[in-house]
Each structure stands twice: as C-alpha cells, then as structure tokens.
Design brief:
The complex is a heterodimer. Chain A is α+β, with helices and mostly antiparallel strands. Chain A has 9 helices and 11 strands. Among the domains of chain A are: 74 residues; 117 residues, Trna Endonuclease, Chain: A, domain 1 (3-Layer(aba) Sandwich), CATH 3.40.1350. In chain A, the strands form 2 sheets. Chain A has a 5-stranded mixed sheet with strand order 3-4-2-1-5. Chain A has a 5-stranded mixed sheet with strand order 6-7-8-10-11. In chain A, strand 6 and strand 7 form a beta hairpin. The radius of gyration of chain A is 29 Å and the shape is flat. The relative contact order of chain A is 0.10. Chain B is an alpha+beta fold. Chain B has a domain of 125 residues. In chain B, strands 1-2-3-5-6 form a 5-stranded mixed sheet, with helices on both faces. The radius of gyration of chain B is 20 Å and the shape is globular. The N and C termini of chain B lie far apart (65 Å). Classes of the chains: A alpha+beta, B alpha+beta. Strand 11 of chain A pairs antiparallel with strand 6 of chain B, so a sheet runs across the interface. Chain B: This is tRNA-splicing endonuclease subunit Sen15 domain-containing protein. Chain B: InterPro entries: Sen15_fungi, tRNA-endonuc_su_Sen15, tRNA_endonuc-like_dom_sf, tRNA_intron_Endo_cat-like_sf. Chain B: One of its GO terms (cellular component) is tRNA-intron endonuclease complex.
Chain lengths: 330, 187
C-alpha cells in the first residue's frame, strides 16, 4: 500500500468515466488517482459510494468519486484526463474476454481473499498473545511485591485465562499448535474498485470530448481553481460553490460563491441575504462572472461558442471579475 | 351632535429629511431619483451613524468622467472594516482591532427595489480609487497630482464600497462590497 503522503502520480492522462452517453456524471474508481488529484490539483469531487444495506449512512462515503462537471472539464482541458464512456467500454471489453480469462481473474480474487483472511487471523492471534503476556507480567510483578495477594491474583488470572482462551488455543505456550493456522481460513470476498486487472486501460479517443458545463459557473470555477482554491458543491450552504483556501479537511471555507452573467440582473435583497448568510458563518459572499465590455461582443458568448466547438486556441483569456460581500456591522 | 368643521389647516411642517432634500437641489448631472437617494443616505449616515466629512461625488476622481450615479464618501466615527491580516496583527500586539484610526469610506447609495448586475458593480469600481479623496485632496488631484499620489493611494484589501441599501420604510442596510477576492473577517 503506498504511503498516503507521497502518492505516485498515476499514468497520465487518467480516464474519467462518464456513466453512459445519456448520463452526464463523471466518476473515478481508482483511489490512487483520487488522492493524487486532491493533493496535487485541488480536485476534490464528492465520494458517493455507500453500503447497499445502509444507504442512509452518508457521513463516511467511499468510492466511487463523482467529479463535478466543472472539475471533469478542467482535467480534460489541462490534458490530465479524458472522458471514457463507462457503459460502452465495459460492454465491449467484457464481450471480448474468454470464459477462461474471467475464471482466472475470479481465482485470483479468491486467492487474495484467502490471503486477507490469513493476515487478519494472524494479527488477531498476535494481539491475543500480547494481551496475555502483558497480563502475566503484570500479575507476576505484583506477586513479587506482595506474595500473599500476588498469589491470589495469579491463581485467579490463570483460571480466567483458561476460561477465556480455552476454546481457541488450548496450549497457549506453544504457538505452533494454533488450530486456525493449519486450516485454510474462510476466504474474504474482495470487491475490486477498478476493472483494470481484467480489462485493459480504456483507449484514448482521438477527438477528446469536453464535459458540458454552464459557461458562466465554469468561468468562475476555473478562476477560483487557478488561484489555488479548493472548491466543493455549495448546495448545502445555499450557494453554488463553497470555496476553501486549502484542503477542506484542514480549513474552513472562505467564500460562498455564486456565478452570474455579466448583465444578469439580481435583486439587492439576494445580495443582502447572501451577505448576511456568509457573515453569520464567518464567510464572504462571493459573486463573480466573466467581464464583458459591451453587450454585443461579450466575452461570455465567446466562451460559449468555443466550448461548443471544443477549440481552446481562440479562447481569449476572458477576465473574470469577482465581488465579495460582507455585512457592514452597522 | 355638532360636527366641527375645521378650517383647512396649513400643510404640516416638512420633515427634517424633506427639508434637507429641498435645501440641496440636484446639480442636474444625474437623475433626480439618484440625487435624492444619495441625500437620504447621507442624512442617515450623518445623523444616525455620526459620520463626518461627508460629501457627494458626481464625477470619478480618477477619470473625471461622470459616475454611473452619485457616490458618497465620509469618515465613520470608528473603523468599519479591518482586514483580517491587520486584525491578527493587532490582536497579537494585544490591542483592539476596531480601536484603530477610522478610514474614509466610499458609500454606494441604492434602493432595495433596484436590480443590480456584475456590470454595474464593475462600473462603480472602475470609477473610484481605493481611498476616497476629501475636497481639498480632490483639488490637489486636479492640479498637481501627476504621479497619482493622491488618487491612487492604496489600502489593504483593495477597493471597497459600503453598499447602502434603502428600504421602503427608510431602513438603511449597510454591506461592504470588495472588488476582487478578499478573505473574510473573523469577527
């Protein structure tokens, strides 16, 4: 297992799995990719994997990781990733595999499961042995200081040891006779998060497709991301994005961000409400969008057209302007 | 029962605000509505919040062009904004961040029923510098400020305005709007 603080870079570009051509949701299955993107590229996504039996348990979710469309888009634009149609790729690849290949993979998984079970059993026995040794040394040291009481404790300890450990290991002093180590423990069921051992890496498409995004919110997302901010969906806080100055595990968010078109009108009451909401939780209400010099030739329209044509070369660096609102305190 | 037929009474005395507005007619640069709005906010700042050195700006101190609407500037009785970094420094020194010297502030008068857009905020910020000039300073700016020493003075956090929003019941709400990304205060 790689150390969490120095994850090796995954093979670039990484495949980003679009569920299917009809479902525009972008998933990552590889934990190494997920942690690497978080550490090196401020891409957080949202863990959405839950236990089928307890789906309402949503505090500690696991793989897969769902990327926001903006995150998927920025990865593709920066050449770090490419979009793979998950359904098509799996159907096609699986069909090309022979039964023998699939059986081989299954056998491998079983072998891994056995290994996991064996390791677990081993660590359990180690723990039991350590606990017993500790217990003995405690009782023997107390017996040396006070023989009468110590003797009592020792006999009691021996008795309790027998009742506690009799079933699993009748002769604790001779570890070679441990019953479970001889027999094969029941294999664990391994559920791999990726399909890589079986399927080869998905091919890179010749013409990379860009994830569809709202040009207005994407511009703001890109601007904030380029400044080194970490961005999570803001729906829980009543905004579009919550913006963190560092990893959300270490920092509180600084801003509640909303994007708007340059000429999009909003009521001042929205601004007052947002400012008040942010200040109440020590955050700023941030509103931003692409600056358009005049209405006929807005930079925003440019982004829209280039986004559709998937050409980045003639996309002028549109200037994003942001405004932060805080309560005045008077 | 006799009905008392009173002689038509004289119109009630105009309120302090009305007389103030009547006494300060618009110079005609902006719509009357914007001028009256600015006066009402100015009145509120002066008498409810004890601001001093209040003045109305119709033209940008930077470009001398007409502002989208009249803006106010003035000196609050105490600091209304302390940048979080200054806040931390002051606390480390063992002082009270809000006890510092008050700074002149820009005030943007608005009405709650108005619709705003990013463009309109952008236009307001394009017309102002970081520190609002006093009347005396503006004269200097007009004559001998070649290096922009007065008009381009800087302060931590960059440009900011105090957004004053007037409600229909004469309530005025005050919010600070920064130009750009400025981290929030930890109050």
């Amino acid at each position: 297992m790689p150390a969490s603080h120095s994850n090796p870079a995954p093979d670039l570009p990484i495949p980003i799995f679009q569920v299917s051509s009809k479902v525009e949701r972008y998933l990552l299955y590889d934990i190494n990719t997920v942690t690497w993107l978080r550490q090196k590229h401020n891409i957080l996504g949202v863990l959405i994997g839950t236990l089928p039996q307890i789906p309402q348990q949503n505090v500690f979710l696991g793989l897969p990781l769902e990327l926001q469309p903006e995150e998927a888009r920025i990865l593709v634009e920066n050449g770090l990733g490419y979009i793979v149609n998950d359904l098509d790729w799996h159907t096609k690849e699986l069909r090309s595999k022979s039964t023998a290949q699939i059986e081989a993979i299954k056998a491998d998984l079983h072998k891994d499961g056995v290994e996991v079970a064996r390791q677990l059993e081993k660590s359990r026995q180690n723990q039991a042995r350590l606990a017993r040794r500790k217990f003995r040394s405690n009782s023997s040291s107390s017996s040396s200081s006070d023989s009468a009481i110590g003797h009592n404790i020792k006999t009691r300890a021996d008795e309790s040891e027998e009742t506690l450990f009799d079933n699993s290991s009748p002769q604790a002093s001779t570890p070679t006779t441990f019953a479970p180590s001889n027999s094969d423990p029941k294999a664990w069921t391994i559920t791999p998060a990726t399909s890589y051992p079986l399927l080869s890496n998905p091919p890179r498409p010749k013409s990379p497709s860009l994830p569809e995004v709202n040009p207005c919110s994407y511009a703001l997302f890109k601007h904030l991301h380029s400044q080194g901010y970490f961005i999570t969906p803001g729906i829980r806080f009543g905004c579009q994005f919550s913006v963190y100055p560092g990893d959300p595990l270490r920092f509180h968010s600084h801003f509640l961000a909303m994007s708007a078109d340059w000429d999009e009108e909003f009521g001042l009451l929205d601004l007052v409400g947002g400012g008040r909401l942010g200040t109440g939780v020590k955050k700023g209400w941030l509103i931003g969008g692409v600056e358009g010099k005049n209405t006929e030739q807005g930079a925003l329209e440019e982004i829209e057209s280039t986004g559709a044509a998937a050409t980045r070369s003639n996309n002028h660096e549109a200037r994003v302007r942001t405004f932060c609102i805080e309560w005045g305190g008077m | 029962m006799t009905i008392q037929t009173s002689t038509p009474a004289a119109a009630p005395q105009p309120s302090a605000l009305t007389s103030y507005i009547n006494a300060n007619p618009s110079s005609g640069t902006h719509l009357q509505f914007y001028h009256t709005l600015a006066l009402q906010i100015l009145h509120n700042l002066q008498y409810q919040h004890e601001w001093t050195y209040l003045r109305i700006h119709t033209h940008s101190p930077l470009t001398k062009t007409l502002l989208p609407r009249p803006l106010l500037s003035g000196l609050p009785p105490h600091r209304i904004y302390v940048h979080p970094d200054d806040q931390v420094e002051e606390l480390k020194r063992g002082g009270d961040p809000l006890k510092g010297e008050p700074e002149r502030e820009w005030v943007l008068p608005t009405h709650l029923a108005e619709k705003w857009s990013l463009r309109r905020f952008g236009e307001v910020f394009d017309g102002i510098g970081e520190v609002p000039p006093t009347e005396a300073e503006e004269e200097i700016i007009g004559k001998e400020d070649v290096e922009g020493r007065w008009s381009r003075r800087e302060r931590r956090g960059g440009k900011r305005v105090l957004l004053a929003t007037l409600g229909d019941d004469s309530t005025v709400l005050y919010y600070i709007v920064h130009d750009g990304i400025v981290k929030p205060r930890q109050n």
